[in-house]
Design goal:
single chain; alpha/beta; Rossmann fold; Helicase, Ruva Protein, domain 3; 2 domains; two-stranded antiparallel ribbon; 11 helices; 9 strands; 18% strand; disordered N terminus
Length: 274
C-alpha cells in the first residue's frame, strides 16, 4: 500500500497521481467513517490504496476505473472480498449513478482521488445525481476546493461554488501535500466533504435556468451584472428584484441568483443557449 508497483506507471492522460502515504490514507478513511451498512462507490481507485482501507469497514464497494490495465490488478488484490467488491470498467463522466443507487435501494457514499484534468466536469455530473448520493468525499486540487467552498464576495467565488452549494453542504477537511503522491503533483491537494441537502435551502423553479443565469453572469467576471446579464434581462428588472445592476457577479449570493432565475422562469423567457 505504501508504494505503487513498478508494473504500472501512472498515466498523464488519465491524470493519475497515486496516493501512497499511509498516514494520509488513514486520515481520509477516518473522515469518511465507512460502516457495514454503507454502499461505497470509489471513482478512480488506482492501485487500491484507499480501497483496501475502506473495504475493511464498508458493507460493499463498487469501483469505477477507466484505465483498462488496472481492473485485473484490483480484482486479484481484492479477490478474497467476493461480491463485496465490484469494479466497473467505465468512464465516471458517463456513469449512471442513479441506476446503481436503485440497484442497491440505498443512497451512495462516493469517494475518490479525482483526476485534476476532469475534476470540475465530474463534479457537475455528480451534482446532477445528488438525489442518489448520501455524501461525497473527494481529493481535489486545493484551488478547486477553494472555489467550491468560496462565499459571495470572495475572489474564488463563481459557478462551481454556487452550483455545488446549491445542492450540497460544503466542508473542506484538510490539505494533502504533493509528497503524499507518486508521481508528485506540482500543487497541493485537499480533501472535501459534500453532503447533498435533503431539502434545498434555496430551491430554483428550474435548475437549468439557474445554471444558465450563473454561467452568463460570470461570462466576464470584471464586468457588471448590467452588462453580463443583458442577454437575459435588463437593469430595470434587476432593480425590481432588489439587485443592484452595477454589482459584479461575485457579489451576489446563491439566494439572489435563484431570485433572478425564478423571475426568468416565471416570465417564460427562453434565451438562446451558448
Amino acid at each position: 500500500m505504501s508504494k505503487k508497483p513498478a508494473m504500472h506507471k501512472a498515466r498523464k492522460r488519465f491524470g493519475q497521481n497515486f496516493l501512497q502515504d499511509p498516514a494520509i490514507i488513514r486520515r481520509i478513511v477516518r473522515s469518511i467513517a465507512p460502516s457495514e451498512k454503507d454502499h461505497m462507490v470509489e471513482i478512480g481507485p488506482g492501485l487500491g490504496a484507499l480501497t483496501e482501507e475502506i473495504l475493511g469497514d464498508a458493507g460493499a464497494l463498487d469501483a469505477i476505473e477507466l484505465d483498462r490495465d488496472l481492473p485485473p490488478i484490483l480484482r486479484t488484490k481484492f479477490f478474497s472480498y467476493g461480491d463485496k467488491f465490484r469494479i466497473f470498467e467505465e468512464d465516471a463522466m458517463k456513469f449512471d449513478f442513479h441506476a446503481l443507487s436503485q440497484e442497491h435501494g440505498t443512497p451512495l457514499r462516493v469517494v475518490g482521488n479525482l483526476p485534476y484534468n476532469i475534476s470540475t466536469q465530474l463534479i457537475f455530473h455528480l451534482l446532477s445525481h445528488a438525489g442518489d448520493i448520501l455524501d461525497m468525499h473527494f481529493m481535489l486540487q486545493k484551488e478547486v476546493v477553494d472555489r467550491m467552498a468560496a462565499g459571495a464576495g470572495e475572489n474564488n467565488y463563481g459557478r462551481l461554488g454556487i452550483m455545488t452549494q446549491y445542492y450540497c453542504a460544503v466542508e473542506p477537511l484538510f490539505i494533502v501535500p504533493p509528497e503524499a503522491f507518486d508521481p508528485r503533483p506540482k500543487v497541493d491537494s485537499a480533501i472535501i466533504r459534500l453532503t447533498p441537502y435533503k431539502t434545498l435551502p434555496h430551491e430554483a423553479k428550474d435548475v437549468k435556468q439557474l445554471d444558465l443565469v450563473v454561467r452568463t453572469a460570470f461570462g466576464q467576471r470584471r464586468k457588471t451584472l448590467r452588462n453580463n446579464l443583458k442577454p437575459l434581462l435588463g437593469a430595470e428588472a434587476l432593480e425590481q428584484l432588489g439587485i443592484d445592476p452595477g454589482l459584479r457577479p461575485e457579489r451576489l449570493t446563491l439566494e439572489e441568483f435563484v431570485r433572478i432565475s425564478d423571475y426568468l422562469t416565471d416570465k417564460a423567457v427562453s434565451p438562446e443557449q451558448d
